[in-house]
Specification:
CATH topology: Rossmann fold
Helix content: 25-40%
Oligomer: single chain
Order of helices and strands: EEEHEHHEEHHEHEHEHEHHH
Radius of gyration: 19 Å
Number of helices: 11
Structural class: alpha/beta
Number of strands: 10
Bound molecules: adenosine-5'-triphosphate, magnesium ion
Number of domains: 1
Shape: globular
Strand order of the largest sheet: 5-6-4-7-3-8-9-10
Largest sheet: 8 strands, mixed
CATH architecture: 3-Layer(aba) Sandwich
């Protein structure tokens, strides 16, 4: 049966779809059996990064999670940012160190993070929530003298349980993002059309190289899957057009896709605690994230 989400008096429900365009993978939500896929032996850990702020990292991460989940992939979204935007986007409460362990404490104590994992409204997406005390992680990690090891150890607990772990990183080059990079097997760099975008990409790639070298891994062991240009607004002025062209034609980082400004689709989906591919599956906005997943070869296009 093909199914789709409809809103009934403020409550989401599943009904048989009226058209052939609704994805089969919606069957993975709300108690319906998830599609069967073959499981890879190793979990992919993807750093969703840019030390430049406000470029669309969180928006891309939550919606890419949706595009992966609708292909039946089991996704853990690790909210690495004490702002907790990815956590609240899925209507999951942030953790509180006054009440128990948090992401920051399990990272530092090297304890099992499983009890922190929260379910979302999408069956194939779980969230490892953020917590305010993560603001102190950079200094705590610095004190250990071996910051790079910690996220790899913590996320190692999930090895084989998920197909993909997406790391929604905060906008910083610091010991916490170093540690998250060291845990990653791949990266997607989000950018916006802005004067400082190329410099930001350069700095991000430099961080990747620094961490791979420090970990004794070959520099290309962190697979930079590509770049996503977020919040694209057209028409552009001459200056922005030149930046946009530079980004699209980056000599080493392929373009995975771009996301035009789509406030209504993105905010209304987020308000329901759902990625846009589940809340508004037929919109072009949903299509942008499916394209990114497919261009990054994270899913096989239908
Ligand atoms: N394509 C888009 N259309 C409309 N609004 C968008 C789009 N992408 C992102 N936004 C909005 O822009 C703001 C910044 O986006 P987002 O939080 O995803 O960026 P970020 O890179 O994660 O930020 P930070 O560096 O603070 O973590 C948010 O308010 C988000 O809702
Ligand atoms: Mg963010």
């Amino acid at each position: 049966m093909r199914v789709c989400w409809v809103e009934r008096g403020g409550v989401l429900d599943i009904v048989p779809a009226m058209t052939e365009t609704t994805p089969d993978s919606l069957a993975g939500t709300r108690g319906l059996p998830a599609p069967r896929i073959s499981r890879p032996e190793l979990t992919r850990i993807i750093a969703m990064c840019n030390q430049k702020g406000g470029v669309g990292k969180t928006t891309t991460t939550i919606n890419l999670a949706g595009a992966l989940a609708e292909h039946g992939r089991r996704v853990l979204l690790c909210d690495c940012d004490p702002q907790g935007n990815a956590t609240s986007s899925f209507k999951v409460p942030m953790l509180d160190d006054d009440k128990g362990p948090t992401q920051a404490t399990v990272v530092i104590d090297m304890s099992d993070p499983h009890e922190l994992v929260a379910k979302t409204r999408v069956e194939n997406i779980d969230v490892l929530p953020a917590s305010m005390d993560m603001a102190f992680l950079p200094s705590r990690l610095r004190e250990t003298g071996s910051a790079n090891q910690f996220y790899a150890r913590m996320l190692g607990h999930f090895q084989g349980e998920y197909d993909d772990i997406l790391l929604d990183m905060r906008p910083a080059l610091d010991t916490d993002t170093d540690s998250q990079t060291a845990a990653a097997t791949a990266a997607i760099i989000m950018v916006d059309v802005d004067e400082w975008a190329m410099k930001a990409v350069k700095m991000q790639v430099a961080q990747h190289k620094k961490i791979m070298t420090a970990m004794g891994r070959p520099v290309d062991d962190l697979d930079i899957l590509g770049m996503v240009i977020g919040r694209v607004m057209k028409p552009m002025g001459d200056f922005d057009s030149a930046v946009y062209k530079q980004l699209r034609n980056h000599p080493r980082i392929p373009l995975l896709g771009e996301i035009p400004v789509r406030s209504a689709d993105l905010k209304e989906s987020r308000n329901k605690g759902l990625p846009v591919v589940f809340y508004r599956p037929k919109t072009d906005t949903a299509g942008f994230f499916r394209t990114i997943a497919s261009n990054a070869k994270l899913v096989t296009a239908a």
